[in-house]
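Let us work through a complete example step by step.
Step 1: write down the sequence.
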Amino acid sequence: MSEETSTSGPADAGYRPHRVVVLALDGLLPFELGIPHRIFGRPKDDRGRPLYEVLTCSVRPPGPVETDADFAIHVPHGPEVLATADTVIVPASYELGPVYEDGVLTDELAAALAHLRPGTRLASICTGVYVLAAAGLLDGRPATTHWAQAEHLQRLFPRVRVDPDVLFVDDGDVLTSAGVAAGIDLCLHMVRRDHGTAVANDVARRTVVPPHRAGGQAQYIARPVPDPQQASTTTARTWALGRLHEPIQLRDMAAQEAMSVRTFTRRFREETGVSPGQWLTQQRVERARHLLESTDRSVDQVAREAGFGTAQSMRQHLQAALGVTPSAYRRTFRAGAEHPEARLRT
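Step 2: predict the structure and record it as tokens.
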């Protein structure tokens, strides 16, 4: 659906997909540019209508934008389309110039960002975070970027609370991700936040990626090559996922790999970026979300099946992870199944 024309008929009165505008900058990485189009281009409502509309714009009038590869791309929209966006995503670029070197916007980039409406959701992939930071949009807020750039980002923008360990940061109306594939994690998270776990999981399946990656960037930072004889913790994780509804002790997980608790804990953190306890909580939160969205089980039943034991325990964990109670989460995404414009505000 273009800005000028619409093919919607009378039965579609009031229908308007959430508009995502991707800001393409010179030196961009084609892979990262394609992530928002792939992830947001898939979700549909129960009538087969797209839940999102994805447009690409430049800081200049329509025309070519150079990439870091041996080809340029033609971008069909100028910066004025930013004024129509519900969400704006800034992918990485290797040619940010003064934005990266001095922490200041170029004149054309500042003019482009001036089109943003108040309340527009903003997101960045990898070094796209420098654009948001240079615009002053991250002052006093948490953010992340590729682990190799985290220290530089913190030095250049001391008012930004840089977290180098996570795959993405959701600070409500501003979201930032680590490098490259973490942009997939971020976009799936936004779909999950907007329309629930079932929709996000369907997109992940169609994209052939995990719907949720446990851990953070720590597992991807280069370290000395481990002893190839050392076992991974995959068997233990698979074993635990099959019995989330049961009490799971750390020693039981370690026993699945025939390791001591100390060795298992160290290996687990190296492979996932989080402790076994944190990982179990993440998996139980995801299980609870799925049950709240897809079943009519009571909150007490969901708590037991997800492994939290009591409704109070589950309430505390969901509040910490999502900022909402189980009942509020269920109301949001039951409504979202019938009314695609329903949003979970965090």
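Step 3: interpret the result. Residues 246 and 272 are 22 Å apart (CA to CA).
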